[in-house]
């Protein structure tokens, strides 16, 4: 069984918006809707839940209205919040985590990543984006660690211990565009206009 967890608890202070970050409107729809839509369309995902914090009470309410189960985490950073989530789940399930700010993510990409995970033979998988993807699209990565730019999409087992992981590099703008500023929103809306892709 694969459980998807949308990480939707960040302050989003860089956004300079009165709305909580997951609820920021893109083409008239809350940004988190696109992640929800992609997860629901993925064949290999069995259940969807979301992690919120004290910083995202309106997001929590919105998700519950959508029928999505939520877990309120301590807001102590990604690693500690993930440990908290794992402590609430059955042991040794497959857990796919995705940040709420990946509005271009597609169901087909999620299924591809899960297929690669099934083949890799390791308990965890981190999806990274090549630096070239950012350079070509004139984007700046929000985080880089030892030359690796994580996408915000990860898979692991629901076991509270360090897990050996495979790094899967995918050269796709949908995994590179994390929304962290008003400039990112402008880029996203221009991309959607130019590509003809609907945000619904």
The unreliable regions are none
Text of the CATH class: Alpha Beta
What average pLDDT do the residues reach?
91
Helix content: 25-40%
The total tally of domains equals 1
Given the C-alpha coordinates, what overall shape results? globular
* Tally of helical segments: 7
* Count of DSSP strands: 9
| CATH architecture verdict | Alpha-Beta Complex
Strand order of the largest sheet: 5-4-1-6-8-7-9
Radius of gyration from the CA trace? 16 Å
Give helix and strand order, one letter per element, not per position. EEEHEHEHEHEHEEHH
Spatial separation of the terminal alpha carbons = 28 Å
CATH superfamily: Spore Coat Polysaccharide Biosynthesis Protein SpsA, Chain A
**What is the CATH topology?**
Spore Coat Polysaccharide Biosynthesis Protein SpsA, Chain A
The secondary-structure class comes to: alpha/beta
Provide structural commentary.
- With 200 residues, this protein is of the alpha/beta class.
- It has a single domain, classed as Alpha-Beta Complex (Spore Coat Polysaccharide Biosynthesis Protein SpsA, Chain A).
- It is 34% helix and 22% strand.
- It has seven helices and nine strands, in the order E-E-E-H-E-H-E-H-E-H-E-H-E-E-H-H.
- The strands form two sheets. Strands 5-4-1-6-8-7-9 form a seven-stranded mixed beta sheet, with helices on one face.
- Helix 2 links the parallel strand 4 and strand 5.
- The mean pLDDT is 91.
